[in-house]
Amino acid sequence: MIKRTKVASAINLAVVSSIAAGAFVASSAFAAEETAKVERIEVTGSRIQRQDMETASPVTVIDAAAIKAEGFTSVDQMLQVQTSMAGAAVGSTTNNGADGVAQVDLRGMGSQRTLVLLNGRRMVNSGSGADSSVDLNSIPVAMIARVEILKDGASAVYGSDAIAGVVNIITKKDFEGFQFDMNGSGTDKGDGQNGDVSALYGFNTDGGNYTFGAAYADRRGVIQGDRSWTEPGASSYIPTGTLGGKVQDANGNWVDRTYGYDFTQDSYYQTPNERRSLFANMTQELGNDVVLTADAIYTNRRSNQQMAAQPAEVFLDVCKTAGQKDCLTLDQAMIAGGITANKDGQVSYRRRTNDVGPRIYTQDTDTWRLSGGLAGTLDVHTGMNWDVTYTYGKNQAKTAVENSINGSDMKASVLANQAAWFSGAPLTQQMIDAISYTEEAKGGNEQQTLSAGLNGELFDLSAGAVGFAIGAEYRRESGFYTPDEVVIAGESTSAQQDPTNGNYNVVSIFQEVSVPFTEKLTGEFALRLDDYSTFGKATTWKIGLTYTATDELMIRTVAATGFRAPSVAELYGGNSGSFDYLTDPWGNIKDPQILVNRISDPNLKPEESESYTAGLVYSPSYLDGMSLTLDYWRFKVTDAIARANTQDGLDACFAGDTAACDKFNIGAGGDLTNLSNALTNVGSQDTSGIDFNLAYNFELIGLDWKVSNDTTYLVQFEQDGVDYTGTIDGNFGAYSRVRNNFSISAGQDDWSVMYFNRYIGDMRDLEGGNKVGDIIYHNISGTYHVNDSTTVSLGVKNFTDEKPLTVSNGSDGGTVPEVYDTIGRTIYGGVTVKF
């Protein structure tokens, strides 16, 4: 029997309870809390099995009941509403450049700096190939029992990538019976439908349990132009084409372009996505205190995005002599209109290729993961436990871009059919077929991990037993991405890109110790050594302290170091072209977008970090059912893998800095033909803030009430010397000073209702400097247990249909869809049947 203080109970309340975006707390967490016999478990952030949850690290938990009540149909949705998130993690609202993946961005430090685990073990990176983050689409919501978010650095426990924290997804197991779930949602505008169905079956054996599941989810698109708040686009690439920035009027004269092209009619706010998943868990006692565990998951994702027709540009050589072929002759009308050749003797021809059709990006990805392990007890009297696990993960993807344009073929067609192209009239089908193609690429990732560990109690002190965990791990990561042959050859109207292919392995040794110095003071210590085949050794450590000042108050703090190893793409990515918005100080290039060759580096070193958290847990005796936590946090990253500022390099070279000219491969006289920017360990991050959580469960007027409030106050976010605190931008996302989630629910017997709101504080527009106001979203939901086997739920998100705020440098539709709701009021419901 275990007796807990009110503080210990409060921590268990916070950890085992239901907190979805600061949502309500599940009442079942309190049952028999003072007298229940608790077995030793492993909590996120430590490998030491313990009886209670009171560790030095702050952890937020979202359980399956909360996921259902809030109407979440994907893992990224439930994570990105947490107040501890910032930046702009890609997901269902990212139409440009995400290839359909969904990621988490804890503290806004980048998805590559948050480690994602499945049942405490690494999940394979996934996406379009050679990826550095986990695609959360590969984990179906139906299999999730709870999600634990560790909000401090954990490299000393888990190794690379856990700089900002850890997301540990725990799957359903020990399930008996059959459960069927069906959920659906749609906007009040008649689009954006989401639907998912899942089935779960489990049975017990003598000393074991086997649980199997299947899930299907389908998400439909929302077009940007179908929302009244969308600002029309104004691209300089227009369907009739421009020559040297001029258009030909009805009289054959070349005049200035006076209108733009609205690309929002073809682009998505919510991207279509279809997922099929199979999953299984098993636990079986083998005798002699040995237990076999295994879990398996397979997910197929078929997703697509759509953007306006390709904005294609080709440079036409101006004829130098009469009768010269395959070149452009500047006639008197062109000269009179101001069309002139550039320094290379060329004239730019641009056209929005609407004749061909919108760009349709498609992905067909498969992700597998199989993990198995044996665990046992060396001696039941000593409490020594051992485990051996092997995890294999693989992801492979086929991606395509329909209605792509072959730049070489388009240039040849323009020169051969100048009158047809310059007139602005629709292209013939023969011309369309000659210049268009479907761009196809393939890629993948593979991960293998073998781990062995020993944990238990070393000896007893007067205040209790000293717990420990030691172990070793071998991991191999590999990835590849092969672009379309046209892209590799540099003949596409998109930038040239080289293939990526590479691998590395790492051997790790780790240890943890938990020492009860007194009945009130406990220390937690971790040390890890990783040896990489790429850069060598990395050592990280963690020191945590918990002090139970009274039965009501506990103080906690953690100091730790961390690191992130360079990914396969960062090491072996080769050249990849990017049209960046830059100003040529020499004046040779007038176009605002200049081609930059982005280069990887096999000699990159790991990023290094320091993290610090300090806080308290308080559960007042005078207010039964209430607990609150308050934590200060700070993360500093040095040697971050980044690219130097290209514009700064151009300006420095122009001013006479020859080292800058060499670094960016700038030729004599400002020749930018081979302008390059390589990845290096030059970046940095420094961020800090305060987290506050309050949870209160009570009875009033015959109802069970639950109140929860989560607040994150951002003190500072600085990256690469730029202060992003309190700003928003389409490239970097949002770093609001204040984010707050509040919920209140009331229930009785078979029913419950909940009101939830999400607040994002005002920010400064990073590009324009204008103030972007604050916003609050209101959600309501209800749940009713029809009988012992059937439960129904109904809810409304964004009840007041708040419009997204305008951001001058927004990523889409004049705003940032990853931050603000661009879909509008959404109604959702679901049915669960158990038997």
TrEMBL record:
Gene3D superfamilies: TonB-dependent receptor, beta-barrel domain, TonB-dependent receptor, plug domain
Predominant cellular place of this UniProt entry's protein: membrane
SUPFAM superfamilies attached to this UniProt entry: Porins
Keywords associated with the record: Cell outer membrane, Membrane, Receptor, Signal, TonB box, Transmembrane, Transmembrane beta strand, Transport
Alphabetized InterPro entries for the sequence: Beta-barrel_TonB, Beta-barrel_TonB_sf, Plug_dom, Plug_dom_sf, TonB-dep_rcpt-like
Membrane topology, from the record: Multi-pass membrane protein
Highest taxon above the source species: Bacteria
Domain spans labelled TonB-dependent receptor-like beta-barrel: 351-798
Signal peptide boundaries: 1-31
Location of this chain's protein in the cell: Cell outer membrane
Pfam families: Plug (PF07715), TonB_dep_Rec_b-barrel (PF00593)
Domain named TonB-dependent receptor plug: residues: 53-166
Family: Belongs to the TonB-dependent receptor family.
Protein name, as recorded: TonB-dependent receptor
Source organism per UniProt: Shewanella cutis
